[in-house]
Recover the amino acids of this structure.
């Protein structure tokens, strides 16, 4: 039975983790950064060494293909992949697993000269983590990138997308040209770590994704009055940070009590200005995100939290601006791709369970142009987006073999 080489998988995953690798373990490899571009060059070399044709599109998505030198409407390809950018102080598997396992699968098919009707390709989508713009590369590929917005896209710290792309040799204005030819993708399936505790706690080997959550992100800026921290009487202070803290606690409570059991929310970025210990904060800026697999719930919660921000500001004589940043749409996996993953699990003697993804993924963009599916392997302790993110190597091998047989089924369909 066709199977992947765990030795090769391990070698490549460890090698990739060294680009932006941190001394204590973990990886920081933001999209377009020097370490990301070195990783891209390394990946292209590995793809070519595996006998694949390679190309990079105007949005910086990197492709390795078996049986085609480009995507074409008259020969729809079966696509797999994920991303090689990471969050700050992230792990070595988030994204990397899907790209390296996809490369491994295509290399096995090439070296065994296994017949398949459709071309196959593995993609490394740019900026999946959304440092400059959520799910950027796959959004461009699926024709969902608003060209006018690209020039204004920037990271929360102000670094502009156009500048970092230019440094990496790309013209941001051309990113929308990455749009795939109509009908050029027959199916898309992505292997990813679950990034949560459910699979490990249920003891099931493979997760078959049914749906992927939508994620809404906003910048919320509270504007009060900077004042002397010693001499200003407490009752006269218009402290922007206190308003932000009040909002954060109440918004979390609101989502937990008024959402569903699948609604989650987080505030991971806080900036206080001017940011000195002896100045009452004049301005406090939060990035607030919320998630749910149901777009109606997500929209309701988002509107209700906007109202909450206004209430907090009024109560504290503070001004507030709620600036939408990104809104990804929940997506459903295609039944035929889910069935192909489950058939692969059965042929490999692996247990599987259907589940929704509480993380966002490029696959939710691909759902707009083709039949999409995802499969998960368990994350140790459910840990992810942290330096000790890891999965067992035999789980990695199981996931890659399941991907291999799923791709083969889809490429023969
Ligand atoms: O944030 C997410 O859900 C994903 O890891 N980008
Ligand atoms: Mn990911
Ligand atoms: Mn991630």
């Amino acid at each position: 039975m066709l199977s992947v080489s765990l030795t090769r998988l391990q070698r490549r995953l460890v090698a990739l983790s060294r680009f932006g690798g941190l001394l204590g373990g973990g990886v920081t490899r933001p999209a377009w950064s020097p370490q990301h571009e070195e990783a891209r060059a390394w990946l292209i070399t590995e793809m070519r060494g595996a006998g694949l044709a390679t190309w990079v599109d105007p949005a910086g998505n990197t492709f390795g293909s078996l049986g085609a030198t480009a995507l074409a409407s008259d020969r729809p390809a079966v696509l797999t992949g994920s991303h090689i950018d990471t969050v700050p102080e992230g792990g070595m598997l988030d994204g990397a697993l899907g790209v390296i396992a996809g490369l491994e699968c295509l290399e096995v098919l090439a070296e065994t000269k296994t017949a398949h009707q459709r071309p196959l390709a593995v993609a490394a989508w740019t900026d999946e983590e959304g440092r400059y713009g959520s799910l950027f590369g796959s959004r461009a590929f699926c024709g969902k990138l608003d060209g006018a917005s690209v020039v204004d896209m920037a990271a929360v710290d102000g670094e502009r997308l156009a500048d970092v792309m230019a440094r990496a040799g790309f013209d941001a204005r051309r990113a929308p040209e990455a749009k795939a030819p109509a009908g050029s993708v027959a199916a898309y399936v992505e292997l990813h770590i679950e990034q949560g505790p459910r699979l490990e706690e249920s003891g099931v080997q493979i997760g078959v994704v049914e749906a992927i959550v939508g994620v809404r992100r906003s910048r919320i800026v509270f504007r009060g009055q900077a004042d002397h921290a010693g001499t200003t009487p407490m009752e006269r202070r218009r402290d922007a940070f206190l308003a932000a803290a009040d909002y954060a606690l109440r918004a979390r409570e609101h989502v937990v009590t008024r959402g569903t059991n699948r609604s989650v929310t987080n505030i991971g970025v806080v900036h206080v200005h001017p940011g000195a210990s002896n100045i009452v904060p004049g301005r406090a800026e939060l990035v607030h995100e919320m998630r749910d697999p149901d777009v109606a719930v997500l929209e309701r919660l988002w509107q209700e939290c906007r109202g909450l921000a206004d209430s907090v500001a009024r109560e504290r004589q503070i001004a507030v601006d709620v600036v939408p940043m990104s809104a990804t749409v929940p997506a459903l996996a295609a039944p035929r791709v889910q069935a192909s993953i489950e058939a692969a699990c059965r042929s490999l003697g692996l247990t599987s369970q259907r589940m929704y993804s509480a993380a966002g993924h490029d696959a939710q963009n691909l759902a707009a142009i083709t039949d999409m599916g995802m499969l998960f392997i368990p994350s140790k302790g459910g840990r992810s987006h942290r330096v000790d993110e890891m999965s067992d190597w035999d789980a990695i091998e199981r996931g890659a073999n399941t991907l291999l047989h799923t791709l083969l089924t889809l490429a023969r369909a």
User: Anything to note?
Assistant: The pocket of (2S)-amino(hydroxy)ethanoic acid (ligand 1) is lined by residues 128-129, 359-360 (CB under 6 Å).
